[in-house]
Design a protein that fits this description.
With 677 residues, the chain is of the alpha+beta class. It is built from 17 helices and 17 strands. 41% of the residues are buried. One of its GO terms (molecular function) is poly(A) RNA polymerase activity.
Length: 677
Amino acid sequence: MLSGQQPQKHYGITSSISLAFPREIDLLYTQKLIEAMKPFGVFEDEDELNHRLAVLGKLNSFVKEWIAEISETKNLPPSAVVNVGGKIFTFGSYRLGVHTKGADIDALCVAPRHVERSDFFSSFFEKLKQHDEIRDLRVSTPCFFMCCSIDLLFARLALPSIPDNLDLRGDSLLRNLDIRCIRSLNGCRVTDEILYLVPDKENFRLTLRAIKLWAKRRGIYSNMLGFLGGVSWAMLVARTCQLYPNAVAATLVHKFFLVFSKWEWPNPVLLKQPEDSNLNLPVWDPRVNPSDRYHLMPIITPAYPQQNSTYNVSTSTRTIMSEEFKYGLTVTDEILQGKADWSKLFEPPNFFQKYKHYIVLTASASTEENHLEWVGLVESKIRVLVGNLERNEYITLAHVNPQSFPWNEFVSMWFIGINFKKLENADCVNIDLTYDIQSFTDTVYRQASNINMLKDGMTIEATHVKKKQLHQYLPAEMVHRGKKKSLGDLNRSSNSGGSKRCSLDGSQLDSSRDTDTGTPFSSPTPVSKACKSASTPVSEPSPSENELGMSIPVIGASESAVMAKSTAPPVGSTIPTVVGRNVIPHMSSPNASPSDLPNGLNGAAPKRPHSPSLEEPPKKLKDTEQGLAVTQPMPIPTIDTSRTQRLPSKELPDASSPIPTNNLRVIKNSIRLTLNR
């Protein structure tokens, strides 16, 4: 080292890969990157930024006033009331400085020890309701304050007062706090620690904006569905910045893909060496916790207590993200060689041309309020369905599209692309997905019942469709985006123009929630059935037959309507699970009953080669014209309603919980399909 030259600060748990400073060409590519991102609205203008600051300042004043008022009611001396304090902290994308136009603000109200959580949800709630500037104020949902959407959490510290210069990064603040306050503080502590651990905050922010935009455009931004959420992407970008501390955004984006396309998962991503603060809180440690050993893509939060922010990642979602990292590296190589523009990096994939088989998951409700609640619950459990499917011995990949699509006002659809294993030693194989999907719907209904959400008209339906049938659910321009249209495609599009379908906005980036909360799940393993050698392969249906057969269930259909629909089933085999009164036709096989659902480990359960046994399997009705074996619907057997078992956790019910039956009936059907070599 030259005399008088200061050693560079060391970041992260390893030394840097390169200390190279940017060249002129790197600065030019960074400016081009900024210009490419502007059309997507990722940058906030000065007026909106100042408006957010004004809103947070006013909310901070409300908090101080409220804490002073509550302190007086608890007989604190006047001298203490004056200095009791209170403060609003921000976290998430706003605190990191990477929020987009119109994005929510994640905020935390910090109060002294004499202020109870019950005070926050009672007196502070009432205080906010008195202000005309605040609307849509609800517990557990963001409120709108002066046209800003704010999600406000609460934590009280074991301190007599809250000074304005309080730093939440100190671990000693967690002493003597209940777990709810520790969880509330965790968002701010993690965000602050990330910013502290990066070499250059501005380069980090611009790089993170680019990576978040790329992840949303490529359909891999959703912690809830098993991809990565905002904090996880921030930690990956922060680790890249540590490895290349002097690089600018254009270089960092390229290095991001270079590093993580070659990362050997499940080796964890760490921003700092984990520390033990002797507070006896549970931390991520696979040496101590056996369940941590099954995490497939661990990214560990830097603040104590350290947690894995990606426990929802499954085998399929990790495979999809690994492929996207490699594709991103290829594209950025082309960009830095002058062979492509940055806009190519943000081109969305054509999900609907990628797979030959899809599962269409439909969630319906009868009112707008019920629809919002129901869709939220169903979406939070889709990762359970993905886990079930990918454990089927004949399925190699289950890829859920994070964007949901409207069918009509109170119906939402999700699409899951399926890759089946190539057949080697058999001419055909019969695959039964009934158990995989039914165990998922049972889980959703149990959860809805346990939290008293289940209402008439709430339905889930899963349908298997082939790629050529997708135009019956989606606009042709969305299905065929990026594909050169053949004459047959054009004819099919013109013939289906009269179908009843809601228009969709293909420009939407992502409809998933930017969240990093949830709990790991355990899912039952799937069922599959091998085709007997004596069986005759079933012929594939013609396009005209496919188009005639497809249907989406009508909400609130009468019994006669359901009976009529059952005579003309859709081409894709369907599992409708309809909740409602007077919509169930008479069944001829009342003795059939579903078996108990086993539990497995997240991401680690072996493939299950055999079907769960049923006492009386229903008769198959072979439909050689449509190529599917369809079973008659089976009603769920009546369960003793005196059973009042409640679960210790409301996040994911276990298989022993009863499926609700009090006047809310569920129709069960089957999805079985035949694959030919």
